[in-house]
Amino acid sequence: MRTRVLMAVVAAGAIGLAACGGDNSSTSSTAAPAAASATTAAASSATTAAPATTAAATSATTAPSSAGGDYGGGGYAVPATTAAPAAASSAATSVTLSDTKLGKVLADAKGHTLYVFTKDSNGTSACSGGCAAAWPPVMASGTPTAAAGITATAWSTITRADGSTQLAVNGQPLYTYAEDAAAGDVSGQGSGQLWWVVGPDGAAIKS
Fold first, then answer.
1. pLDDT higher for 22 or 141?
2. What are 107's strand-pairing partners?
3. What is the pLDDT of residue 108?
4. For position 7, what pLDDT does the model report?
5. What does residue 101 show for φ and ψ, rounded to 5 degrees?
């Protein structure tokens, strides 16, 4: 009788242990996927946040700036990354006359109006960088030629800071204006009270 009771106790204990083991297995297998899901969600969130940083960097790089300032640029827009002067007038050594609302003025071979900058002195250009992007210097090579009707005779050249050669009249370096779209345009006249068109005699017209 005592032996039967002992065997019954042992059997009951074995069943209890088996039941506990089954519960642990179920809990472990359920917890693992939950932890994996949490890790995946965190990684996905970090990946999604990255483009915001990239967009901010792109915006900062492409932001435009003004080419105005103390040289009378008139608010002409230049990219922030554009520090070098724009390409100069292509027919720099051939000077013509152009009919404008201000009368006849000096122009390049394409009829684009030429200007002088009153901040220039002693045959030295004070216009470079952003200024030269808005007011391209008229480059020269060889001996300048002037069209009929031009009475100015004091033609010369200056050497710019970058080593290039710029055309000058009466000792004043000459420029075009980037916002003059067509021959005869004089939209740069009087800009900042610093820029003036030039008459056939080589003198600035300040009107």
1. 141
2. 96, 113
3. 94
4. 55
5. -70, -15
Using the structure block, give the residue that is written with the tokens 């019954």. Answer: 8
Cβ 87 vs Cβ 190: under 8 Å: no
Q: How far is CA 124 from CA 29, 118, 163, in A?
A: 83, 11, 12
Helix intervals (H) in the chain = 2-62, 130-134
Distance between first and last Cα of the chain:
132
Instruction: Report the alpha-carbon distance of residue 150 to residue 97 in Å, rounded.
Output: 7
The answer to which of 25-34, 69-78, 158-167 has the lowest mean pLDDT is: 25-34
Distance CA 113, CA 107 (A): 4
Q: Which amino acid is at 180?
A: D
Reported as a single tens digit per residue, the pLDDT across 56-74 is: 333 333 333 333 445 665 4
Nearby residues of 91 by Cβ (< 8 Å), 6 or more positions away: 108, 109, 110
Amino acid identity for residue 179 in this structure: E
**Residue 103: exposure state from Cβ atoms within 10 A (0-12, 13-18, ≥19):** middle
Separation CA 156–CA 21 (nearest Å): 102
The three-state secondary structure class of 50 is: helix
Query: Tokens 């297995």 appear where?
Result: 25
What separation in angstroms does the CA of 155 have from each of 12, 48, 94, 106, 169? 119, 64, 11, 13, 5
